[in-house]
Design a protein that fits this description.
The protein is α/β, with parallel strands linked by helices. The chain is built from 18 helices and 18 strands. It folds into two domains: 288 residues, Rossmann fold; 148 residues, Isoleucyl-tRNA Synthetase, Domain 1, CATH 1.10.730.10. α17 packs antiparallel against α18.
Length: 503
């Protein structure tokens, strides 16, 4: 039975060029969205850009630009990234927080939370990098632990505050639902965060000091705090509050809602955002999946270190699917992972050029040379190993399973030598080759949400009974040892009964 399935990434701040970390979140989301679409679900896939706040305002001033012109420029870069990564355009919606409808939705959410909002004088330490206040006890060497190169600033002003303390019991009840956060240790982290005691948080800034934001309803001297504003995108993209197309009712109220976010977002997404929804009388998010960070050479990416990975540059040189496959297979879904160009290039040759590219060429060359007509292939249900991995958001395990099927089919060709059999016994040889083509089609079906362009080329080759053009030209980037690097090989696991059954 099909479901209404809503999926969203976080919205990146438009104060820098897109990086590999957000590319990973986008690709992960697109794989899930495409997979659910293939299962027959009605999918709504949201992403976009977060464009208000002090950090954006300062960046625009530094570059001598109008804030709106600055955000327009960067929003285009993120829209280009969605194209470069091959996101499904039929499913994707791109929301900008400077959009007129979104700003109106943020103001309406404020009105609905009004009973939990009050004006207070406040003095505290503020991290511009996080666009959030920070406790002195949380500082490390006088700096915000997430932004150690930035000075925290002391702010003393009159702001509106949201009564978060009021929702401690409701939040604990929400967080105590198994599966509401993945992985489990992040759920426990959120529970402990609430149990330590919540503090009300500021949800506005004085307009005179920070004019770049959504005006507070009924108080033109204040603008809405960037987090309160930005979080509203998850429902404004659905047309809330008017809901003229019925998307909010169909996907948020009656559907399955899933949010993807980085591990540093737990308090914002699973505590603050859920409390805001509770206050407004709206349904909470059904599930949030948190991923780790991407490092490069074991260090956080930074321009000064020269280890920043540019996803657009990789796509331009190696193609969309090369980057999608690497992010899906070699970046852990929940823990921090390292991404270097050496690692990427070695994996490209091992997994793609010598893997699926070589296999598709071998199988279809045999078919083209020995079969008069294209093989009639039928839909083969997804294997349990594949579906179980995707259902638990272990994208890497799903892709590793596909890699094992690719490896086994390649081994089967080497062992059975159909190119010799067909010469000795034409009928048996042709049947063997047809079996190889059907297994290639079964593999291709699993590849469809992961590397859609490649999958399309393979199935078209099968339908035409032609060897495809070189899918992944080998690059001259062999590892120093000349061997396939260990990370490009499937993990050794105990074989399960049926693993060697080629459908």
């Amino acid at each position: 039975m099909s479901k209404n399935f809503y999926l969203t990434t976080t919205l990146p701040y438009v104060n820098a060029n897109p990086h590999a970390g957000f590319a990973f979140e986008l690709v992960t989301a697109d794989i899930i969205a495409r997979y659910r679409k293939l299962l027959g679900d009605d999918v709504f896939f949201n992403t976009g850009t977060d464009e208000h706040g002090l950090k954006i305002y300062r960046k625009a001033q530094e570059e001598g630009k109008d804030a709106q012109a600055y955000t327009d420029e960067y929003a285009k870069k993120y829209q280009l990234l969605t194209q470069k990564l091959g996101l499904d355009t039929e499913l994707l919606r791109f929301v900008r927080t400077t959009n007129t409808h979104h700003k109106a939705a943020a103001q309406e959410l404020w009105r609905r939370c009004r009973g939990d909002i009050e004006l207070r004088k406040y003095k505290g330490l503020y991290c511009v990098g996080d666009e959030a206040f920070i406790k002195e006890s949380d500082l490390v060497d006088g700096k915000c632990p997430s932004h150690p190169t930035m000075d925290v600033i002391e702010i003393e002003e009159e702001n509106y505050f949201f009564n978060l303390k009021k929702y401690e019991k409701k939040l604990l009840a929400y967080l105590n639902q198994e599966g509401v956060i993945v992985p489990e240790w992040r759920r426990q982290e959120a529970i402990q965060f609430v149990r330590r005691g919540l503090e009300d948080f500021s949800i506005s800034r004085v307009k005179e000091k920070m004019p770049w934001g959504v005006p507070v309803p009924g108080d033109d001297s204040q603008v809405v705090y960037v987090w309160f504003d930005a979080l509203t995108n998850y429902i404004s993209t659905l047309g809330w509050p008017e809901d003229t197309e019925g998307n909010f009712k169909r996907f948020w109220e009656e559907g399955e809602t899933l949010q993807l976010a980085g591990k540093d977002q737990v308090r914002f997404q699973s505590v603050m955002w859920q409390a805001m929804l509770m206050s407004a009388g709206l349904p909470t998010t059904k599930q949030i999946v948190y991923h780790g960070f991407i490092t490069s050479g074991g260090q956080k990416m930074s321009k000064s270190l020269g280890n920043v990975i540019d996803p657009v540059a990789i796509v331009d040189e190696y193609g969309t699917d090369a980057l999608r496959y690497f992010l899906a297979r070699h970046i852990h879904p929940f823990e921090d992972s390292d991404f270097t160009m050496e690692r990427f290039k070695d994996a490209y040759n091992a997994d793609l050029a010598n893997g699926i590219g070589n296999l598709a060429a071998r199988v279809m060359q045999l078919a083209q040379s020995n079969l008069a007509e294209p093989v009639q292939v039928e839909f083969v249900p997804y294997p349990k190993e594949f579906t179980d991995a995707l259902a638990t958001f272990k994208i890497n395990e799903a892709v590793e399973y596909v890699g094992k099927r690719i490896q086994r089919l390649d081994q089967k060709i080497n062992q059975t030598e159909p190119f010799k059999v067909v010469k000795a016994d034409v009928e048996k040889g042709r049947k063997d080759i047809e079996e190889l083509v059907r297994e290639l089609a079964a593999i291709d079906l699993m590849l469809e949400p992961i590397v859609p362009e490649t999958s399309k080329k393979i199935i078209e080759a099968i339908m035409r009974n032609k060897k495809p053009e070189n899918l992944f030209p080998r690059k001259d980037v062999a590892s120093p040892s000349g061997r396939v690097p260990h990370f490009a090989l499937p993990k050794k696991k105990k074989e399960k009964k049926g693993d060697l059954n080629f459908s």
